[in-house]
Amino acid sequence: MPFYLTWILVLIADQLTKLIVRLHLPEGETVFFWGLELTHYENAGMAFSLFQGYARLFAAVAVIFVIGILYFRKHEPKRGALVDVALGFLAGGAIGNAIDRIVFGRVTDFLVSPSGKGILNLADQAINVGIVLLAMGGVIHYVAGKARARARQGKG
């Protein structure tokens, strides 16, 4: 359940914010909102504007990625709510950007990174959050497994 709830919330938030940006912020224009620098940018490539013009190819990659997540969830042992939420962030972000690539042939970006070296959107941020949560889940799983092994050795 946490997987699907996270996926849906990420997707709705991503698509809603992109719609607001497309409707109310002309491309190339910058505004400051609640301390955030927002610049409307349309990216027909991938991260860092690489491979411009291949948006639909990246949409197909995103769909395959989400199919892989669904396969993993079905065939691997459950690893807990944290990993489920992490996978929801990853799937929601991937599908959010895939929708843009399929419908518009490009992704709407607007969140200027604090370093000023990139413009992202909520889907990109969700993927980043998903990666961090997945890594945390992996560390927790590893540490818990080691603790269980030590406990078994102590009993035997």
From TrEMBL:
Transmembrane segments: 53-72, 81-99, 119-144
Catalytic activity: Release of signal peptides from bacterial membrane prolipoproteins. Hydrolyzes -Xaa-Yaa-Zaa-|-(S,diacylglyceryl)Cys-, in which Xaa is hydrophobic (preferably Leu), and Yaa (Ala or Ser) and Zaa (Gly or Ala) have small, neutral side chains
This protein's UniProt keywords: Aspartyl protease, Cell membrane, Hydrolase, Membrane, Protease, Transmembrane, Transmembrane helix
InterPro entries noted in UniProt: Peptidase_A8 (IPR001872)
Protein topology in the membrane: Multi-pass membrane protein
Main subcellular localisation: membrane
Subcellular location: Cell membrane
Listed pathway(s): Protein modification; lipoprotein biosynthesis (signal peptide cleavage)
GO molecular function terms listed in the Swiss-Prot or TrEMBL record: aspartic-type endopeptidase activity
Pfam families per record: Peptidase_A8
Residue numbers annotated as active site: 109, 124
EC number of this enzyme: 3.4.23.36
Function statement: This protein specifically catalyzes the removal of signal peptides from prolipoproteins.
PANTHER family documented for this protein: LIPOPROTEIN SIGNAL PEPTIDASE
UniProt record similarity statement: Belongs to the peptidase A8 family.
The protein, known as: Lipoprotein signal peptidase
Gene name, Swiss-Prot/TrEMBL: lspA
